[in-house]
User: Which sequence fits this backbone?
């Protein structure tokens, strides 16, 4: 009894099918999503076209890593800080949530592209409409966007975009 036709065409077809099935199961490496500036301090998201500082505000890029302690800001201070950085701004909630990688676990952001990321909240420029005293914050520990109840009293991190 012949179970499988052993012609070369059938085997090639089976092999091609197996390769296609395997490639659908293997996730694309996250590093292919980002390109880096010449000095490595900035990262371009090839999916959105946005350019991000790799380090959290307060940190500096030393050529291979983010150094120094990150700074927390109230919302108004975060907006002022962003305005003081020529060509940069505070991202809106949609832009910042685009960095969530959905891998779950402790950090929901690409740690190669953003080695200085903190597992906590980052301010966005988006106000929380039901409450003018609140603004949206993206939490990279829980992979969620939550609102900060108090723009003047909340203290969160900043990642700049252009």
Assistant:
């Amino acid at each position: 009894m012949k179970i499988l036709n052993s012609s070369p065409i059938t085997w090639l077809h089976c092999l091609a099918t197996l390769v296609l099935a395997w490639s659908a199961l293997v996730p694309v490496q996250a590093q292919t999503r980002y390109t880096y500036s010449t000095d490595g301090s900035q990262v371009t998201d090839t999916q959105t076209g946005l350019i991000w500082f790799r380090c959290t505000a307060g940190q500096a890029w030393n050529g291979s890593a983010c150094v120094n302690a990150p700074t927390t800001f109230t919302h108004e201070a975060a907006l002022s800080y962003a305005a003081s950085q020529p060509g940069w701004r505070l991202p809106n909630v949609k832009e910042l949530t685009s960095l969530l990688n959905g891998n779950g676990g402790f950090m929901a952001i690409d740690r190669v592209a953003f080695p200085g990321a903190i597992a906590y909240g980052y301010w966005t420029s988006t106000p929380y409409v039901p409450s003018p005293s609140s603004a949206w914050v993206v939490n990279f520990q829980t992979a969620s966007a939550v609102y900060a109840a108090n723009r003047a009293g909340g203290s969160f991190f900043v990642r700049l975009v252009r």
Notes: The two ends are 66 Å apart (CA to CA). Helices lie at 8-25, 75-83, 93-97.
